[in-house]
Amino acid sequence: MMQYGAHFTRSKGILNLLVILAMFIALVAACAPAAPAGESGSAAQEPEQTTITVWGWPAADVAYESFIADFEAANPDIKLDIQMMPTAEEHDKLLASLAAGAGAPDVAMIEINYIDKFVAKGGLVDLLQEPYSAGKYKDEMVPYKWAQATSPDGRLVAFPWDIGPATFFYRRDLFEQAGLPSDPESVAELTSTWPGFLDVAKKLTNPDEQRWAMGSASDILYTNFAHRNLFDADWNCAVNNERAVQLLTYAEEARAAGVDAKVS
């Protein structure tokens, strides 16, 4: 039985593909024909080996290698067939397989920016349903990653395996020159609000030394729409919603304060 796989991966480094593969295997087992009544001996005791085909790209090599041996040792009747290929090739091949209705792997990695294409194409199973019941892992994931794997109609069509944490880089020496504290805790507190951030930006900016706090004030607005937030939950255009207007106001204030280099 062929099931079209979804973006099955790990979350928080603990919940990994072992869980997803185990759920998929449960489905395979449920669909397998039962052994004839009265069958006995070694044939009945040694189930036929099942091969699970997984597609991915080289960035996942280390992650896969970390659990394959343990998984196959714990499940001697299961063989993992890991097939790595360039990212673009993997996506194109998977889309073609879904369109043809044949040839897709059991499990496949999908880059999050492309997942909408696969949802539209169809073929991805809903992991909230039996035998996966993946909803029990929701609390182990950061909310935005779970949302990224959820289709507009509420199906969980993929399983996140990582998060993209954001960080704040700054020059300790420049903070100290401006008379500002430079330890991470203090910097985080100073910049935790927009007024605080703008105040720090003003103190760091020195046009005479060709030094500005940011390249362009417009970045404040545009980063909000970097591959996201273009539509609200009801698919209405969100570029003029309350959040966007607030960010545009911040950008105007930054430009008026002279803290950006006006890079276009």
Structure explained in plain terms:
Strands 3-2-4 form a three-stranded parallel beta sheet, sandwiched between helices. The chain folds into two domains: 7-159, Periplasmic binding protein-like II (D-Maltodextrin-Binding Protein, domain 2, 3-Layer(aba) Sandwich), CATH 3.40.190.10; 172-257, no CATH class. The chain has helices spanning 17-31, 42-45, 61-65, 68-74, 87-100, 115-121, 143-148, 172-177, 184-190, 194-204, 219-222, 242-257, and strands spanning 7-8, 50-56, 78-84, 107-108, 158-159. The protein contains twelve helices and five strands. With 264 residues, it is mainly alpha-helical. The radius of gyration is 25 Å and the shape is elongated. The model is unreliable at 1-38 (pLDDT under 50).
